[in-house]
Amino acid sequence: MSLTTTFLIRGVGFDAGEVGVVNKTLGLLATIVGALYGGILMQRLSLFRALLIFGILQGASNAGYWLLSITDKHLYSMGAAVFFENLCGGMGTSAFVALLMTLCNKSFSATQFALLSALSAVGRVYVGPVAGWFVEAHGWSTFYLFSVAAAVPGLILLLVCRQTLEYTRVNDNFISRTEYPAGYAFAMWTLAAGVSLLAVWLLLLTMDALDLTHFSFLPALLEVGVLVALSGVVLGGLLDYLALRKTHLT
């Protein structure tokens, strides 16, 4: 969570020293333990089950910060929330790395893994500013409740793509997409258009921050970019589901 430190200091009222010790030291330890424990569990679980279980835990772990936002501050409460969130984050990271390796071609694994890792971090660039505006408009408690609910669409998409994931893991290649070529092309162009709008928004936001320009349409541009990009993702997922039904894999 990009605003965790800000929340603990300004939202709850902990001292910077307390946050530094608990959030950074204990959080780092929990992340390492979570990654190691997640790797051990993945030896017994399939990739799909690991992604599903660890994804649920990651989403639910933000409820600890929600409890902090509606209760009196207590050092042990902060420690428990930070430890659990970072523990689940480490477990989720181990499953995510395994997913990326599954998606990579063995002949180009290093290049593709680096590219996919970089792409997975793009969302954080846009979540930070949006999260700040959301907190200002709705408050910390609503923000963390929303962060729990925000995990649900990804879990649903994972369930939809279960057979594709299992096929890729077993056969070491992707299912050929022969159905709906025009639909897939439109979905890709829609996603590219949304990402382009978000890139323009980020550039203009930077110019505004440097007092070079003062655009009033930036919030609207952000909303349009997010909606267009999400439309491309949803359309692609829907086409995947329909294509899988046609090939009798669902």
UniProtKB/TrEMBL annotation:
Ranges annotated as spanning the membrane: 20-40, 47-68, 80-101, 113-135, 141-161, 182-204, 224-244
Keyword Chloroplast: no
InterPro entries xrefs: AmpG_permease/AT-1, MFS, MFS_dom, MFS_trans_sf
GO molecular function, one term: transmembrane transporter activity
Subcellular location as annotated: Membrane
Top-level taxonomic group: Bacteria
Pfam families xref list: MFS_1 (PF07690)
Keywords carried by this UniProt record: Cell membrane, Membrane, Transmembrane, Transmembrane helix, Transport
Any one annotated GO CC term: membrane
Bilayer disposition of the protein: Multi-pass membrane protein
Domain Major facilitator superfamily (MFS) profile stretches: 1-165
SUPFAM superfamilies found in the cross-reference section: MFS general substrate transporter
PANTHER family in the cross-refs: MAJOR FACILITATOR SUPERFAMILY DOMAIN-CONTAINING PROTEIN 3, SOLUTE CARRIER FAMILY 33 ACETYL-COA TRANSPORTER -RELATED
Protein name: Peptidoglycan monomer (N-acetylglucosamine-1,6-anhydro-N-acetylmuramic acid-tetrapeptide) uptake protein (Major facilitator superfamily protein)
Naturally occurring in which organism (per UniProt): Escherichia coli
